[in-house]
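Everyone, carefully examine this protein record:
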Amino acid sequence: MKFSRRVRQEVEVNLTPLIDVVFLLLIFFMVSTTFTKETHLSIDLPEASSQSSRAADLQIEISITREGSFAINGVALINREQNTLRAAIEKVSEGDTAIPLVITADSATPHQSVVTAMDVAGQLGFSHLSITTTLTKPAS
């Protein structure tokens, strides 16, 4: 009988596929987290010294960001064009111009964006128009 030793091969783990998967996961999470930040509107309201009346239950709110982008009832519009804003307001109001329309604009918003929103509301026939402000802090 001839007994011979078997030559053992060294076990080796290939890390290349593991690194590829980790990079793909990293890219996926980086791309998916940027989409969540675009849905938030950060608005710093201007100040006023008088208190406003109670908000109506049914109203249309036009939010204008610092850059001048529009959102209707929290839904951002695809561009800053007047026609896009008009179509969105018509869709939300369903032709009822008696609904109160509230403009909420950042204090650093370009004046032209607020004027555009007011102009579109006036052209559509909205008569109950208000602008959101924050109450000024009394001087002590």
Summary: The first helix runs from residue 16 to 37. The chain is about 35% helix and 15% strand.
